[in-house]
Design brief:
Layout lengths: L7 H25 L11 E5 L8 E4 L5 E10 L5 E12 L5 E3 L13 E3 L3 E4 L4 E9 L7 E10 L3 E2 L9 E2 L2 E10 L7 E3 L3 E3 L6 E8 L5 E11 L4 E12 L4 E7 L7 E11 L4 E10 L7 E6 L6 E6 L14 H27 L6
Parallel strand pairs: 2-12
Antiparallel strand pairs: 1-3, 3-8, 4-5, 4-7, 4-9, 6-8, 9-12, 10-11, 13-15, 14-15, 14-21, 15-18, 16-17, 16-19, 19-20, 21-22
Helix pairs in contact: 1-2
């Protein structure tokens, strides 16, 4: 019987390339489904045609009224460019700030107030086009701040590749449209449970914040960490960027070094834009073995006993979920499950085809 010899190094190389293809393909899929943010480094951009607005539109509009704004989309490159334009809900970025939903996401928020006169753009090198945008405020809109955006994106293009690994990149640029509906509107931020995240190569505490008010809000303050016995460990300033009403974000506080395993008390005091002070205190247990993710220990207020770990957003003050993010969440979960099945199948293939002695 003839047996085909397989060099162990060749087999390992093939297995590595196959696994790398799976991992990089997943990363490319997740990256392409992300939100639109800044315009740095792009060959195109979007801004208000009226330079008096600055970087974004801001209007005060009564319920039931409409307003037409004109956006300017420019091509700063050396060749003709084709872009797709679409309206999107404003969503929160990490640490505060505004991002925008991806194309095809259902507009459940203020993005549904917008309609564009053009959605397909062909722009000559060095030129710009005007894109009228109609803002229609619903008759029943409550007083407060509302944020949506106009996004322009280029067709996907091939990214850096090596061996059997292929990636694609989709470039996007977004511009905010902020609408203030006049009337009494309160500012109210809420803090969730503090926790320590030890993701590979990281050591930072997380402060979940939700805007439960009706206006865009910011906050600054101080984060302190002590041992369970009250010994000071470190203190850091905290700053949160603009947070849209009804949305949530996570502010990260990087530790100067890895706190040793043990029990700690984390405290944060923040002051929101109107001067109101917010406080939160959480008991944190850092285990001997580093754990990816962010969980916090829940302590019974009466007995003082630990009730186990809970997700930092699973608290009364902060409710999970944000407008416009549902399809991204489903996509990410589905992609992770699919990648797991592929890697599992690849493992079986490698085991069954492993080199054997003749």
């Amino acid at each position: 019987m003839n047996t085909t010899a397989i060099r162990r190094s060749d087999f390992r190389r093939a297995a590595f390339l196959a696994l790398a293809s799976v991992c990089f393909g997943l990363l490319a899929l997740l990256a392409n489904g992300g939100a639109a943010r800044g315009q740095g480094g792009l060959a195109f951009g979007i801004s208000p045609a009226d330079e008096g607005f600055g970087a974004y539109f801001s209007y005060t509009l009564e319920p039931g009224t409409t307003k037409t704004a004109v956006a300017r989309v420019s091509n700063n490159g050396s060749a003709v460019i084709s872009l797709r334009a679409y309206a999107a809900d404003g969503i929160s970025a990490s640490g505060g700030g505004t991002a925008f939903g991806a194309f095809g996401e259902k507009r459940t928020g203020v993005g549904a107030w917008l309609s564009l006169a053009q959605t397909q753009l062909n722009i000559d090198a060095g030129a710009a086009v005007a894109v009228p945008v109609t803002i229609a405020v619903p008759a029943g809109a409550a007083p407060g701040d509302y944020v949506a955006g106009i996004v322009v994106e280029a067709p996907p293009k091939a990214g850096a590749a090596g061996g059997n690994v292929n990636t694609s990149i989709t470039e996007r640029a977004g511009m905010a449209i902020v609408v203030r509906v006049p009337g009494a509107a309160a500012e109210k931020l809420a803090l969730g449970n503090l926790c320590f995240n030890q993701e590979t190569g990281s050591r930072y505490f997380e402060i979940p914040v939700q805007n439960q008010g009706a206006v865009i809000s910011t906050a600054t303050g101080t984060f302190k960490l002590e041992t369970a016995s009250g010994t000071h460990v470190f203190e850091r300033p905290v700053e949160m960027g603009s947070l849209i009403p009804t949305l949530q974000t996570v502010v990260q506080v990087h530790a100067p070094q890895d706190p040793p395993p043990g029990k700690y008390t984390a405290r944060v005091v923040m002051t929101q834009k109107d001067g109101q002070e917010l406080q939160r205190e959480s008991s944190i247990t850092i285990p001997e073995k580093k754990v990816n993710g962010c969980k916090t220990e829940v302590i019974d207020k009466i007995t003082g006993q630990s009730l186990g770990a809970a997700d930092n957003f699973a608290v009364d003050a902060v409710q999970a979920g944000e407008p416009g993010s549902g399809s991204n969440t489903v996509m990410i979960l589905g992609s992770l499950i699919a990648a797991g099945l592929i890697v599992w199948g690849l493992g079986i293939f490698i085991w069954r085809n492993r080199p054997r002695r003749a």
